[in-house]
Amino acid sequence: MNITIIILISIVFLIIAGISISDYYEFFKKLRIDIKKRRVKQLFEEIKGDYHQSSKVMDNLSFSIRG
To answer: CA-to-CA distance for 24 and 42, rounded, in angstroms?
Structure first.
């Protein structure tokens, strides 16, 4: 009798632990996707900044050549 109660309780705990592990897995998967999106967005910002910087340099060069 005691063994079956212990087995039932352990099965319930395993089910609860399995659900929480799958929730953590989904959470970390979403977190990883968010980090990737943020990294891509940061790359675009850096490229845009480099482009603006280089266009300013080109404007200054063309102005100094004309001037």
So the answer is: 26
Ranges of H-type helices in 1-67: 2-66
Measured in residues, the chain has a length of 67
User: b/e map of 19-29 (b: 16 or more CB within 10 Å)?
Assistant: eeeeeeeeeee
Half-sphere CA count of 9, side-chain side, radius 13 A: 6
pTM of the model: 0.40
**CA atoms of 17 and 14, how far apart (whole Å):** 5
pLDDT tens column, 26-53: 888 888 888 888 888 888 777 776 666 6
